Amino acid sequence: MMQKNWRTFLQNYNAVIENDRVIQFGDCQAELKHAQTETILTDLSHYGLLCFSGDDTQAFLQSQLSCDVMEVKAGRAQYGSYCTPKGRVLANFTLWQRNDEWMMQLPISLCEAIQKRLSMFVLRSKVHINDCSEQWIRIGVAGIEACKRIEDVMETSLQICQQLRVMHTPQASIFCYAPNRLELLVSEVYAGELWQTLSKDIHPVGAACWDWMQIRAGIPVILTPTQEQFLPQMINLDIIGGVSFKKGCYPGQEIVARTQYLGKLKRRMFLANIATNNPVSAGDDLFDIETNDQSCGKIVNAAPAPNGGYDVLAVIQHSSVDTGKIHWKNPCGPVLSIDTLPYTLDV
Asked: How many CB atoms lie within 10 A of CB 347?
């Protein structure tokens, strides 16, 4: 849950909050335009943190997650997923180290269940798993001035602000999703001061703006409606470094590897826009003319787009994409306009 004092602080800055998620700061459409062209500031309390500690942590995580945990260094994070024995994604996340702890960030709505499931496999290993979501305030800063503003405020250098780089200062951890999109993890004591300073010349925006940026970057977020729906490759985790095909066993590894080497992946995740004013949601079905009433895909993530409609990440059958007409929610629904991802799909 969002920290009570932090909620009050944000509401004093005109934040509209529902279900521990900042909806807006007064004007959703204007905030989307700011996200498109200017530098923005947003609360990320809808993400949670699981903290792993103990002598056996690295080996334990290596045996449970799809990514190569050995690649996670003090200044380097990793995308990854946690799967069922059938290779279906229960959650995807970013993973990094802070001192002797391993930090896993994922939607806060999934934290409790994932913590409980992973704890079942600790057995006699020296591993402790704690939900530390309330220990840190998570703030997103994005736009062309993002790095410069953080450098000025935090009096630190971000000259090497590369994708998935992590930097630690006495006040914060700074996580770089991209050179112009960063996350700050700070204590509650420091968060208010930081927000006050940054918001003087950066536009505060609702969480949907950050969601939209994630979608445009082609980074999926598995939510409750899409758990156990996809193999990691279907949501492009193999392309963004969230799957290792060289490491040892983990839940679902055999199926994930077999799909990679022996099978032909029939579905991939695409970026698209849907011209509709009706809410588009994760888990919504997609259809094409040839499949009639049988779904040919699902929405993974959706967010209002600055230029209208909804931008989405959607897992779709290759054959359906080739037809050129994929419909949202029913065979006669609005058509998806396929856009270009910032990375190349192996199709």
From this structure: 9
Q: Domains (ranges, CATH) in the chain?
A: 1-218 (3.30.1360.120), 224-338 (2.40.30.160)
Confirm whether residue 18 is marked as ligand binding.
no
Residues 131 and 113 sit within 8 Å (Cβ to Cβ): no
Whether pTM > 0.90 for this model: the answer is yes
* pLDDT tens-place string over residues 228-281: 999 999 999 999 999 999 998 999 999 999 998 887 789 999 999 999 999 999
